[in-house]
Design brief:
By secondary structure, the chain is α/β, with parallel strands linked by helices. The protein has one domain. It contains 13 helices and six strands. A six-stranded mixed β-sheet has the order 4-3-5-2-1-6, sandwiched between helices. Helix 10 packs antiparallel against helix 11 and helix 12 packs across helix 13. The protein is globular, with a radius of gyration of 19 Å.
């Protein structure tokens, strides 16, 4: 059976809280300095496999070329893939069809068909296991994400690579999401596939324009049109964006304090008064937009 890969993807439903730090509204590449140390760079990525993201802008290539270590949200490994897959599946007698109903199960199976998953396999997935993979079902199989390409470049340069989050933390983010929220968010995503694809396109265009505020606004506007999932969406936002930004700002400092580090994290983690850049400033780092 052909499988395009069971990947941790940023769900199109993820949003970000309102923020008031104006100078973090635009920009994907930021210089971050600790007192007396060489510069570091933090690059906001989009976890998407799209040909328009195939080439890194010149300032990003230059910053990466001057760096000695790479930090990524997640570094792919066989253990990590197996652990994430295992946690995304019901290991008891429960099934996806029981959780979301037969009609929505058929929708989920059809929408995941391009990934190459069997009906039996899909039926053992938890709702969040389907939710985080819906996006990959309409992305080209031959295109890698910017994060993956950075990892490949680092390996070519024999550049040390560090992981910001452990696999168990990523599992916890989704697996502890209440089942009621998993079901509600998945049902909404299945019912609004065309809207989500349109949102994905607008999100990509905002990203290419380096407009972090627009990235946030697009997600918030989309969520505001569906008040029936407001509480579930808020829980997802807290877990996927807010809580993880705090952890990232702390973990990144393992390398940032020494200088010459290049970190790549999701662009929404950069934006606003609760974003990674603002949190690093609060810890005494100097932050300057490069691109």
């Amino acid at each position: 059976m052909k499988r395009r890969g069971f990947l941790l993807a940023a769900t199109a439903l993820a949003a970000f809280p309102a923020a008031g730090v104006e100078r973090f509204r635009r920009g994907l590449l930021w210089e971050v300095r600790a007192a007396g140390a060489p510069p570091n760079y933090i690059f906001g990525t989009l976890h998407a496999a799209d040909p328009r993201l195939a080439e890194f802008p010149a300032p990003v290539r230059q910053a990466f070329g001057k760096s000695r270590t790479l930090m990524l949200e997640h570094v792919a490994s066989e253990y990590g893939r197996q652990r994430f897959l295992e946690s995304a599946m019901f290991l008891d007698r429960r099934t996806l069809a029981q959780a979301i109903g037969r009609e929505d199960f058929e929708l989920a199976f059809e929408q995941l068909r391009p990934v190459g998953l069997s009906r039996e396999f899909v039926n053992k997935l938890k709702p969040w296991g389907v939710l985080v993979n819906l996006r990959s079902s309409w992305q080209p199989a031959s295109v890698s994400t910017p994060d993956s390409r950075l990892h490949e470049l680092a390996i070519e340069r024999r550049m040390p690579v560090a992981q910001v989050e452990e696999i168990e933390e990523q599992v916890f983010t989704f697996d502890e999401l209440p089942m009621a929220s998993q079901v509600a968010l998945l049902k909404h995503a299945l019912a609004h596939r065309p809207d989500l694809e349109a949102l994905s396109e607008r999100t990509l265009k905002a990203y290419l324009a380096r407009d972090l505020a627009a990235l946030w606004r697009l997600q918030q506007d989309f969520a505001s049109r569906s008040p029936e999932i407001a509480s579930h969406h808020g829980e997802l936002v807290r877990r996927v964006i807010i809580d993880r930004s705090v952890v990232m700002a702390f973990r990144l400092q393992r390398e940032l304090r020494y200088g010459h580090a290049f970190a790549a994290i999701g662009a929404l983690h950069l934006y606003g008064e609760k974003g990674v850049l603002a949190l690093l400033e609060q810890d005494g780092y100097r932050v300057r937009r490069v691109y």
